[in-house]
Design brief:
Blueprint: H1 2-10, H2 13-38, H3 42-60, H4 75-85, H5 87-111, H6 114-119, H7 122-144, H8 154-173, H9 183-197, H10 204-208, H11 232-237
């Protein structure tokens, strides 16, 4: 832990800002996309991710430079749960899954992480990650060709997606120095400035938004019978 903190502290401030900005944009995509796909409130996701990240950094004493965002693994069960049992029951299931993670972390602290590798070997984890990624491929395609946003025509969407992807690939393979460490940030910047130049970005909503507001929180509902399939409690019962 001390060694990790030393590496972060010894890194120049400018590089920390750039790498932190890239991590923010990487997490931002998941943080916004998952609530949109599952019918949850993105503002609640922003608030809870921020609070969770601050608690995480406090507990780990900044030993892991990471931002906690949404998990793609929960998209399918959340979508099913919201349609089957509603938002309150889904919130209860998510809290149960969170408590299950806490229990699992305590077991790891006592016994070490070795049993996890025996319980979930790479041959099991790898295909699961592949299925999650392939399941999101149609969403990526619809965003790239403009289907997900009818206000932008197909040609403009493909141009913006191409600029972002090409910039990311070129920076990650050709660039050197600090740029090679932030290819995603460069791709996001190139795509965004291209969108501004093409007149796609609309700042009206930002100008009309309130400076201070509260997310639309929902109280969870606890019901073992209707507990979503990803719930830790439901997992233990079964």
């Amino acid at each position: 832990m001390t060694e990790t903190n030393s590496l972060v502290d010894d890194m120049p401030l400018g590089r920390q800002v750039l790498m932190g900005g890239q991590m923010l944009f990487v997490a931002f995509g998941a943080l916004v996309l998952v609530p949109i796909l599952t019918g949850l409130d993105p503002n609640v996701a922003f608030f809870t991710a921020g609070v969770g990240t601050l608690i995480f950094q406090l507990v780990t004493r900044r030993s892991v430079p990471i931002f906690l965002a949404s998990s793609f693994a929960f998209i399918a069960p959340i979508t099913f749960s919201v349609g089957q049992w509603g938002l309150p029951a889904t919130m209860g299931g998510l809290m149960a899954a969170g408590f299950f993670y806490v229990v699992l972390s305590l077991i790891v602290r006592v016994r070490g992480s070795g049993f996890l590798y025996r319980l979930f070997p790479p041959v099991v984890v790898g295909p699961v990650i592949m299925v999650i990624g392939l399941g999101l491929a149609p969403t990526a395609i619809s965003m790239a060709n403009g289907t997900a946003n009818p206000s932008i025509n197909e040609t403009t969407s493909i141009i913006l997606a191409g600029v972002s992807l090409l910039t990311t690939l070129l920076v990650s393979t050709v660039a050197g120095g600090i740029l090679k460490l932030i290819p995603i940030l460069c791709g996001v910047a190139a795509g965004y400035f291209t969108a501004v130049f093409m007149g796609v970005v609309d700042f009206t909503a930002m100008h009309e938004a309130a400076w201070i507001g509260m997310p639309n929180f929902s109280l969870p509902e606890y019901n073992i019978r209707h507990s979503p399939p990803y719930s830790g409690i439901n997992f233990l019962v079964r």
